[in-house]
User: Fold this.
Amino acid sequence: MLIGSKLPPERAERTYFHTGRAAFSYLIGQVIHPNKVYLPTFTCWSLVSAMSRRFPNIELVFYPVRRDLTCIYPDTIKEDEALVFIHFFGHENTGVLPPCDGTLIEDFSHSYMSQISPRGDYVFGSYRKIMKVADGGFLWGFFNPIYEPNRKLDTWLRFEAKDWRDVREAENMLDRDWSISDIGSQSLEILLTANESHIRQRRQRNEQFLANNLSVGLPQVIFRNKECPLIHNRIMPSTEERDSLRAYLALKKVFTSIHWPTHELVHRCGLDIEDTLWIEKHVISFPVTHEYGVNDMEYICNCVDEWKQGKGV
Amino acid sequence: MLATFPIERDDEFYVFLKSSLPPRYRIESTPSTSYYSEWLFHYDLYDGDVLKQTFEGDFRTLEKGKLVCEAELVLSDIEIGNK
Assistant:
């Protein structure tokens, strides 16, 4: 037994990064070193961008995603290959994974507050999707990255933001240039003191309200009790109606989004991406964040009713 | 010297001026609302309520160092009273 005062530090069970894409890039570039990476055709473009900008020499291959979010995985994952799969919008992706001699990477960006048991070899994600933090990404397990220098001007700008414009400008800065750097202390404080149960319940309640009360379209995802919704995705009958509704809601100060526009590399991948494009053309994504209450969801539903009754733009 | 940090890249233009300008001045960004438009920029420089200068373009085609020079020029002009 050794007794002393200068002992090695404790190791945490999670490694933090400035962003989810930094965590992903550290994993690919410093831990796994694959020769080929599989991504879904239906995905947040930041992963595609991370691969194309950071790892131009690693083969990037897409696998199709059906409109019901079923993934058509490759037949097998070889030893030097990595497959990334996503729990879309917080809903557990329970599809059967292919036989794997390589590496399975689980993107928990949407689902880190859903009660899901990971099946991948590695779990990573971004914190900014669910929590209102200026930065933050994670990799489950202890790693010891040598972080790249970063003045985090995008983080500074987020804290200075008074409306969407500076938040968007900060997002643009991050999209233009990012590094594998550490999380900010403000974000870490918020994340470590967050009441996950409360957040999950509020989001579940908001999402359930929209699922039951929106008078147009159909829910894309039926969430399970243990899951924490990121957003409420609604499938509209046509692109024209979807765009008209989005425009009307914006006039009413309700800002929706499209998850996701299809990345140009997916367009060029040569696969059948008809279903991925179909989702892009029909989906409208409603916010259900825990900052909002049922009264806010009622307001959204009332606005949608108004649009439906012919007051649309 | 007004600068809060040494500007090194064009991409830092907006934060550099936002963090360095004296209270009488302000800079505002009006980003595009389109998806995949992160390279486009539109910045307006105000003296009080008067628009003094607009900087807009595409970072992908911008002459390297142009906005770094512009940012330093804005601050030096303010310091010597030219703006």
Observations:
- The longest strand of chain B covers residues 50-58.
